[in-house]
Amino acid sequence: MIREELVFVATCDISGLARGKGFPARELPARLKKGVGWTGSNLMMSPFGPIWDTPFGTAGDFMIVPDPAVEVRVDFADGSAIEHFFLGDICNTDGTLWECCPRDFLRRAIKELDDLASLKLVAAFEQEFLYTGVSDRPGDAYALGAFRRQNGFGEIFTAALRAAGVVPDTFLAEYGPRQFEVTVMPQPALTAADHAVITREMARATANRLGQRVIFSPKPDPELVGNGVHIHMSLVDAAGRPATHAPGEPMELSKSAQHFCAGVLHHMPAICAITAPSPVSYLRLTPNAWAPTVIDLVRQDRGAALRICPTFAAATPTEMARQFHVEFRATDAAASPYLALGAVIFAGVDGIRRGLELPTSGQPEQLPRSLPEALDRLAANKTVAGWLGPTHFDAYLRFKRVEAEKVAGLSPAELCARYAEVY
Known about the structure:
Order of helices and strands: EEHEEEHEHHEEEHEEHHEEHEHHHHH
Distance between the termini: 33 Å
Largest sheet: 9 strands, mixed
Number of helices: 13
Number of domains: 2
Shape: globular
Strand content: 15-25%
Radius of gyration: 21 Å
CATH class of the largest domain: Alpha Beta
Helix content: 25-40%
């Protein structure tokens, strides 16, 4: 049967979904310059499809311009269409970056960290999901049996990741029924976010070719543990040397890392609306669910909002410094990795700029208990508004408020089912 290869150019938008347009692969040289057409209101597409509210109306034109450094071309060698896509930036028609580009939001945060402190952030995303191609059996948590019964999914998924330019780290059966987890190797912040998007899409592509689905929804079932996305991160200096660990300091964090973490904690009530950005996200952030419920920094505690991770077999100070890092645990796959990581970095930069200190005593503040509560905290935080800029800030609040309103009447079970269909 006659076929012609197609290429897709995507942005990962406010919904955390990869959207864009495709074109014949033979047009790629021209598309690397002019991209594909886009509109402001395309940013306002809800997770469920409709544009319920938009400040942009029907006016205005933009383009998603592919980044040549983020090309994915994976041939699954099964007769299916080649998985060929680029991730890119939303630009004005003159080629300048649009103020609401999610990827450039992260890029600006990276620049602020570098400009202020001559530091860079290295990160890796740990992502949990359900795979429908394995049966639910009691006692499957972390079990070899569950690992075995996913059959070829894990091997095909791992091969697809590597073919897509992402270096796999671990793949395992997780705590919940049919739940799996994937981690990839750390990368500079922008690449780490690109790889988070690619990882989700390779999981979806693999499952689709096996006649199955993966579900990244934060809470697929109200009775089960949720799916988190954990951002592992560390600071490095201008020469690429580790800059997070300092023996003898509080929590063994360097001064810069202390201020960075203090900034994240300080702004967490507001940035929760960006990192845990769906109504169903707050069904996951509950007690006894292996998810954070308060704003805290704790050593080696998987219930913490910020967790100082262990080091393994670190026989030398150099190896200890290389492994030492912090994990942000209050995010999920309803968030765009660019917006989530960008918000965390901006918050950390503000902590460094202001010399914020880590809390030393007292009862930690509760995380927001719902998306509307988190959005109220976001709306009241003028510092976060400045990171986004007035147009993006207004669009984000409008987008998320109407999303919360549209599902407000659903029961927890209905809410979980609705988001499981999408994510």
